[in-house]
Amino acid sequence: MTRLAIAAQGLRKSYGDKTVLDGVDLSVPEGTVFALLGPNGAGKTTAVKILSTLISAGPGSGPIRIGGHDLAADPQAVRAAIGVTGQFSAVDGLITGEENMLLMADLHHLSKAEGRRVAADLLARFDLTEAAQKPASTYSGGMKRRLDIAMTLVGDPRIIFLDEPTTGLDPRSRHGMWQIIRELVTGGVTVFLTTQYLEEADELADRIAVLNNGVIAAEGTAEELKRLVPGGHVRLRFTDPAGYRSAADALTESARDDDSLTLLVPSDGSQRALRAVLDRLDAVGVEAESLTVHTPDLDDVFFALTGAPAVPAQPAAPSEETVR
Amino acid sequence: MSPFALAVRDSSTMLRRNLLHARRYPSLTLNLLLTPVMLLLLFVYIFGDAMSGGAGRSAYVAYLVPGILMMTIGSTVIGTAVSMATDMNEGIVARFRTMAIHRGSVLFGRVIGSVLQSVLSVVLVGAVGVAIGFRSHHATVLEWLAAFGLLVLVALALTWIAVGMGLGSPNAEAASNSALPLIVLPLISSAFVPLHSMPGWFQPIAQYQPFTPAIETLRGLLLGTHIGNNWWIALLWCAALTVLGYAWSRAQFDREPK
Predict the structure, then answer these.
(1) Is A197 helix (H, G, I), strand (E, B) or coil?
(2) Distance (Å) from the C-alpha of residue B165 to the closest C-alpha of chain A?
(3) How is residue A153 annotated by DSSP?
(4) SS3 category, B103
């Protein structure tokens, strides 16, 4: 049985009349990446703030355990186990990158020598050695974010919260950040990240929860989530009009595009479904020139679940009740 | 680590951070000294003859310097309010809150740093005072120590108030505005003119506000003037403001951030 790094039940939080989190269950096994995906204002940051002891959970929330410690009873033990990189830069811009690192080392009560060693290692690892003697306020967005994460890693935390770690970064820095996160996980660290980028969740996360209006609209692996939304199909392209017509007759459920001699056969993209299509083609003795499988991507899922407008025609999104 | 050792260790780390800021950006501290130094020179060299009422410029320098020194503290801690407000708007304090450190150390480090800064400022402005002729002829070592102790206590009290003001302000500009009384109050104390030269209805206000008793006590210690009951009113003010400022600051800092 895997141990849970993060376990929260019925997480609630409201400010006045506004309910931000309305009963969110979260469980993250040790050594995995969990992505909390949602549009702006979904409550992602609030969830991170609660789990990282910054704010208290609202009344009616269930127990929260982080790294095996009860968050309400022993917040200091939780703090000792976690590292947090918030959405907004948490570096001291007035001092240099190295001084920021040494500040963290001091606050983790490392010895002088140990602190210097850890600071130098991390600065090198995050490609900041050259800029180490410059004030952090002069850093670019990507450098600041790297310094931010480097500072988070000083105490060697086993559980790391990253609140929108790549928001505002250019594509190159974003890929650098993904690499960093993958390396962390290789080292056995548990990562809880929030993002509004589906691609990011798809790339990094073992499990993804879609948060919308303070409730989890769906949860699972990227593949499981994609299967929640219909819209997958097999695209068959033909070169010879006769073959195209007999295939269209055999696959009556398909949508035809007579101009390009292309058939779209609705399918969940599974091996069984694919074989069925091929068998029926074989039965009429037709061979397609090309075959591509289109599974719905997370974009489809996201838009369907969060009810955002401007989505390609999709069947009605499953309501939150049926999913939960 | 015991809670006390943790508090000492983390507070000294925070203190080092604040001193690093002060050392890296000395202009921030020095700018704050402009007001008291300017007023000192203005009142001695421009208004000096009128203010001294014929007693001579050097007598007025002696009268003025203790008040200017107290004003220097008020001016220095405005910087404390501003940097506290700035700090709270940066993500770094949120980071501190999620670390297993002593919770009050952010404030303690700030306060100790600010008191040290105030003392340094007082020494610098005091040096200007000496340069333009201020002399303390009769003060004993004990009186010097008492004067120093008084300055530290006033700095501690005003710093805690300033930290509270900084925490209560949404940004640096607001903090600077809300800390304005710390530099206005000395103007309506006995720093520049004796109480008896003020309108009768105003004298009680000037006499019992925090700065006047402290200034009169400092004057007495350095120049041998009559202290009377000013010393214990001054100590009472220091104690009250320290306790009030501490409680106010802690309450604001411990309040859940949005």
Answers:
(1) coil
(2) 21
(3) T
(4) coil
Domain final residue, candidates A196, A227, A258: A227
Q: Which domain, by its residues, includes B99?
A: 3-254
Query: How many Å apart are CA B182 and CA B160, to the nearest integer?
Result: 12
A216 to A12, A38, A99, A209, B36: CA distances (angstroms): 12, 9, 40, 6, 60
Instruction: With a threshold of 0.85, tell me whether the complex ipTM lies above it.
Output: yes
A216 with A260, same domain: the answer is no
What the block records as the tokens of B103 is 């919770």
Rounded CA-CA distance B251/B235 in Å is 24
Using the structure block, give the residue that is written with the tokens 């190295």. A98
Q: Which amino acid is at B157?
A: A
Q: Which of A55, A82, A88 sits opposite B91 (nearest CB)?
A: A88
- Domain presence at residue A279: yes
Could you tell me the CATH number of the domain that includes residue A257? 3.30.70.100
Closest to B38 (Cα-Cα) out of B51, B47, B28: B47
A311 near A300, Cβ under 8 Å? yes
| Half-sphere exposure of residue A47: CA atoms within 13 angstroms, side-chain side | 38
d(CA A8, CA A23): 10
With a CB cutoff of 8 Å and minimum separation 6, the contacts of A69 are A77, A78, A81
The residue from A207, A227, A247 where one domain ends is A227
Query: Which strand ranges, in their side-by-side order, compose the sheet holding A18-29?
Result: A18-29, A4-15, A64-66, A69-70
Query: What would the pLDDT profile of B43-67 be if each residue is shown by its tens digit?
Result: 998 888 887 776 778 889 999 999 9
Best of B24, B93, B98, B105 to substitute, by most chain A Cβ atoms within 10 angstroms, is B98
User: Are the beta carbons of A53 and B256 separated by less than 8 Å?
Assistant: no
Q: How confident is the model at residue B3 (pLDDT cuts 50, 70, 90)?
A: confident
B226 to chain A, any CB pair closer than 8 A? The answer is no
DSSP state of B187: G
Q: How many distinct structural domains can be found in chain A?
A: 2
Q: What would you measure as the largest C-alpha separation in chain B, in angstroms?
A: 64
Note whether A119 and A85 are within 8 A (CB). no
- Asked if A106 lies within 8 A of B13 by C-beta distance, the reply is yes
Burial B101-136 (b: 16+ CB within 10 A, else e): bbbbbbbbbbbbbbbbbbbebbebbbebbeebebeb
Q: What is the DSSP string of A207-222?
A: EEEEEETTEEEEEE-H
For chain B, the distance separating the N- and C-terminal CA atoms, rounded to the nearest angstrom, is 31
| Residue B59, amino acid | A
- Give the residue ranges of chain A where pLDDT is below 70: 1, 229-231, 297-299, 307-324
Please answer yes or no on whether A84 and B98 come within 8 Å at the CB atom.
yes
At A94 the three-state DSSP class reads coil
Question: Following DSSP, what letter does each residue of A126-187 receive, concatenated?
Answer: TT-TTTTTSBGGGS-HHHHHHHHHHHHTTT--SEEEEESTTTT--HHHHHHHHHHHHHHHHT
Whole-structure pTM over 0.90, yes or no?
no
Residues of A in contact with B99 (CB under 8 A): 79, 107-108, 155
Contact A234, A269 (CB under 8 A): yes
